[in-house]
Design a protein that fits this description.
Oligomer: single chain
Shape: globular
Strand content: 15-25%
Structural class: alpha+beta
Distance between the termini: 14 Å
């Protein structure tokens, strides 16, 4: 999988607890360990200097007092029962789970921002909602597990774009043509399409493996069928945009997207 190309294990091997504590308020982050991997967790409100760097304009991040560490751990343990490599991906790319309340018109399920590598944000919706449309009646450890893995994939793509020459030097986000996304009735920037293609492709694989061990999760059949068409469309659009990538970016990312999932 491509994300291993961008990860220097030794570079991020140190304990980053002090950095993670600065993301919150005066209280320290809590931590828990699974299979020797240490994770951090907080629900504390963001420091103003941190929140002002988030690319968010239509809602505010608020403090959430509910404890979610046991549910995070349960979902990570669930992931390990599917395949250890999914857990390793999460352990590589998410060090801090930031659970937050949300105010305003939009309700996020989960989010990852390039300005905060290794830190992903989750709302209560991540317990029962799978973007874009699936919603369960209540908490489900599979749903949270998929949302966590979803954000780990985003983190890996972010690091690839930030640390490698993926896009052509002449590529300009401001002037580049956006790509139509028919099922969202929107137009997306190229990097967002790249993110989406990897997320759809990896989640299809994850869902298939989950079904092999947990066939009672029948709703996954519908999600896989819906995702397959979206993935194929996104992959085709990326191939059309070949000239917007460097040779490395196209060969190591776009061309490695499988033709079918």
């Amino acid at each position: 999988t491509f994300y291993r190309t961008f990860l220097d294990e030794e570079q991020f091997a140190d304990d980053n607890s002090q950095n993670f504590k600065r993301i919150g308020t005066d209280s320290d982050c809590s931590s828990f360990t699974i299979s020797g991997k240490k994770f951090y967790y907080t629900t504390k409100g963001l420091h103003p200097k941190v929140s002002e760097r988030l690319p968010i304009s239509d809602f505010d991040l608020l403090e959430n007092d509910n404890a979610y560490d046991q549910k995070i751990a349960a979902s990570l343990n669930f992931i390990q029962t599917i395949n250890e490599r999914y857990f390793e991906t999460i352990a590589d790319f998410i060090k801090l789970f930031y659970f937050t309340g949300v105010s305003g018109g939009n309700q996020i399920t989960s989010a990852t921002f390039p300005v905060f590598p290794f830190c992903s944000f989750f709302s209560e919706r991540s317990m029962f909602h799978l973007p874009p449309f699936y919603q369960n009646k209540g908490y489900n450890k599979y749903i949270l597990s998929e949302n966590i893995y979803h954000e780990a994939i985003h983190q890996s793509v972010n690091l690839g774009i930030l640390t490698q020459d993926i896009l052509h030097p002449d590529f300009d986000y401001k002037t580049a043509n956006k790509i139509r996304i028919p099922w969202r009735n929107k137009f997306w920037e190229l990097d967002r399409v790249l993110h989406a293609a990897f997320v759809y492709g990896h989640l299809i694989c994850y869902r298939r493996e989950v079904l092999l061990k947990y066939p009672a999760l029948t709703f996954l059949h519908t999600l896989i069928d819906e995702s397959r068409g979206c993935y194929t469309y996104l992959r085709n659009e990326l191939f059309k945009a070949k000239t917007d990538f460097t040779a490395f970016g196209f060969e190591q990312l776009v061309k490695k997207l499988p033709a079918t999932c």
